[in-house]
Design a protein that fits this description.
This protein is α+β, with helices and mostly antiparallel strands. The protein folds into two domains: about 1-65, Wheat Germ Agglutinin (Isolectin 2), domain 1 (2-Layer Sandwich), CATH 3.30.60; about 65-130, no CATH class. It is built from three helices and two strands; from the N terminus they run E-E-H-H-H. The protein has a two-stranded antiparallel ribbon. A hairpin with a 2-residue loop joins strand 1 (about 20-25) and strand 2 (about 30-35). The longest helix has 18 residues, at about 70-90. The protein is extended and about 50 Å long. It starts with 19 loop residues before the first strand and ends in a 20-residue tail after the last helix.
Length: about 130
């Protein structure tokens, strides 16, 4: 059986339809935000003066390796287990082991109201696992 997944972007500022995901960085932290065409233009216009005066320090080539503190692996295993259970309940195709596609991770976090880099707060269960 074929499966088609459709992703809709929602403007993170106003809640309407978003036209694109805008990536930017400040003080060594990278961000991305889904914005309508109007809000994306407003963001670019508001930083244009600073971009013009600044120095470009490199080319973004994708994700960079990040070292993680000890203890993170068990959290990742728990998170992956929760994502797999959620995906199965949603009828998505997902393997029992191995890497979980970023698309599924993003869908999971979007429905949970978190960015993909933000785990659930300690002691707070996923909204998809019945609060466990």
């Amino acid at each position: 059986m074929a499966q088609k997944t459709v992703t809709y972007l929602v403007d993170d500022l106003e809640g309407g339809d978003a036209a694109e995901t805008v990536k930017f960085g400040l003080d060594g932290v990278d961000y991305e935000i889904d914005l309508s065409e109007k809000n994306a233009t407003a963001l670019r216009d508001s930083v244009a003066r600073f971009v013009a005066a600044g120095r470009r320090i490199g080319r973004t080539t994708g994700k960079q390796a990040v070292s993680r503190p000890r203890g993170q692996a068990s959290t990742d295993r728990e998170q992956n287990k929760a994502i797999r259970e959620w995906a199965k309940r949603k009828g998505l195709t997902i393997s029992e082991r191995g890497r979980i596609s970023q698309e599924i991770v993003d869908q999971y976090h979007a429905e949970a109201g978190r960015s993909s880099g933000s785990p659930a707060p300690a002691g707070v269960g996923s909204p998809f696992s019945g609060g466990q």
